[in-house]
Amino acid sequence: MGNTMLYVITSLSVGGAQKALLNLASSDFSRDYPPVVIALVEVDGVQKQFAEAGIPVHVLGINRLTQLPWVLPRLFGLVRKIKPQVIHGWMHHGNLFATLTWWLAGCRPVLLWGMHHTPEKATLERKQHALVLKVGRWLSRFPQQIVYVSRRSMQRHAELGYAMQHAQVIANGIPLGNNREQAAHYASVRQELGIPANARLIGSLTRYVPEKDIPNLLNAIRLYQEGGEDAHFLLAGEGMNAHNPALQPLLSALPDAIKVHLLGVRTDAQRLIAALDIATLSSQREAFPLFLAEAMAAGVPCVATDVGDIAEFVADTGTIVPVADAAALANALSGLLNQAPKVRESLGEQARQRVAARYSLNAVIQAYQQMLGKVATYSVSNA
């Protein structure tokens, strides 16, 4: 299959890392490196989008470690049949299995790792994650290149003892929005949710996991409303629905007047983002949150917590607030929404231009092509 790029990812659940892979694998980059994907864990997610993009996907279904012995022969058969030129791990578990796949390949293709997470202290306190990180530290000497999506992620892995001689930062690539489509989405989403056309809409496409700090976000929403402000709030993503038992008491504590739209898992993220006046995240830990970058690409100004590389890529196109400070988050939302519409539009346009200049999908493709060119040259010179 020529220059086939075999991506090995933990799962195809709905998340930023998965979407970043879909963006890259379905881009012009696939002309030089036709993609094939192996997903370790079987979950409901974005398999349909990969299929629609014509990307072959093989799901191993390693939902329990006891299944591993039965899966290894299939993995061996797949890699020998695909004969990839490059094997690219994606996320921590995907990196470990990419290395195993590289060993099984026989022909020793180029091995890349992709780091989409920043392992802060809380991550290390989880036994399974701590073990995966320790194994990864030992194996990190094998890949020809380790790609980090943020400088903070690279710094933390260096502190944990990961090999750094072939490390570099390549942010997730963001397709730029289409103004005409965005205007249509702005109206259609509001119509779908019963939101008046002139109402202000704040949104967060996130997940109900500890690192996203949803309690802080909901507390900020409460403080925002108590300050006499009025807006609708769109919350979408895994666990962001009324059936989540952990979310129910937090929602019950909100005044009835607060208009929160819980959408759960959605696959039309770009359409939802286009309807927003402000995008927000209240995370305690991040590497490169794709949601904020997509919002900026759509011309939506952002309010977010100061974690990972968020402050660097948002810069002066939005507002950055301290972690776990609901009052600061509420005040920032209020301050930005109370700006004149022309000011917000100007900030949104600056955000769009910043993404186009620094984080566009084309820029990421060029970075990958340069990296693979150097790796190929190095491999030949050391053959």
UniProtKB/TrEMBL annotation:
Name the Pfam families for this protein: Glyco_transf_4, Glycos_transf_1
Q: Which UniProt keywords apply?
A: Glycosyltransferase, Transferase
Q: Which Gene3D superfamilies match?
A: Glycogen Phosphorylase B (3.40.50.2000)
Looking at the record, the residues that make up the Glycosyl transferase family domain are 190-354
Q: What is its EC number?
A: 2.4.-.-
Q: What is this protein called?
A: Glycosyltransferase
**Provenance organism:** Thiothrix winogradskyi
In the record, what lineage is assigned to the organism producing the protein?
Bacteria, Pseudomonadati, Pseudomonadota, Gammaproteobacteria, Thiotrichales
* Residue ranges annotated for the Glycosyltransferase subfamily 4-like N-terminal domain, each copy included: 14-176
Name the InterPro entries for this protein: Glyco_trans_1, Glyco_trans_4-like_N
- GO MF entry, a single one: glycosyltransferase activity
